[in-house]
Design goal:
6 helices; globular; single chain; 197 residues; five-stranded mixed β-sheet; alpha/beta
Length: 197
């Protein structure tokens, strides 16, 4: 059997060219991306199941949605906006926990969409505190949101240059995700009165 050269057939780029492209794309991501070592453990169960075992509820997961597509600025913004929950409580009672990776064009797009949809909601970029956790990013954000909702906690700004203080304790939280290469997502949680279901 004759050995074949490794190449990208579409562009004719050999292994060194492929390695250079990979390194440059990784370098772009690492300039803006602060990686964190994060884990999150969540118990998601029905209200009936939780009540049967006398569990305390931290929050109610209302919705979780995600999408994945090519990174075209307009289409990515439209996909992200479509994932966000509709209606609900006043936006000053909504806490937004942004799980964006921190890459400037994506961050600017997320901020633009969130400012349009939830102009009065405080936004907290929790990657500022935790770093970006890749697969654990959304579960970590859901855990933070559930903890804040269960305590009626007003989360102070993580980045005082970018985030404004909250005017009220949140009754609802939206956790967003915009991955470093692809994928967008949003989860909506709401406070549970009484914590026992």
């Amino acid at each position: 059997m004759k050995a074949k050269a490794i190449s990208n057939r579409k562009s004719g780029v050999g292994p060194i060219g492929l390695a250079a492209r990979w390194f440059l794309s990784l370098a772009f991501v690492l300039v803006a991306l602060i990686v964190g070592s994060v884990g999150a453990f969540l118990i998601l169960e029905s209200a009936e199941h939780a009540a049967a075992r006398s569990a305390l509820a931290y929050a109610r997961l209302v919705s979780a949605s995600g999408d994945r597509g090519k990174r075209d600025a307009e289409r990515t913004a439209a996909r992200f906006e479509a994932l966000l929950p509709q209606g609900g409580s006043a936006s000053d009672e909504t806490l937004i926990l942004s799980g964006a990776a921190g890459i400037k064009p994506l961050l600017d797009m997320e901020r633009s969409v969130l400012n349009k949809r939830f102009p009065d909601a405080p936004v907290r970029a929790y990657g500022t505190m935790l770093g970006h956790a890749f697969e654990a990013q959304v579960p970590a954000g859901v855990a933070l949101a559930a903890g804040a909702l269960s305590r009626g906690a007003v989360i102070p700004p993580f980045d005082f240059g970018e985030e404004r203080p909250a005017s009220a304790a949140p009754r609802r939280a939206i956790v967003t995700a915009i991955g470093h290469l692809h994928a967008e997502g949003a989860c909506e949680l709401e406070a549970v009165d009484g914590r026992r279901l």
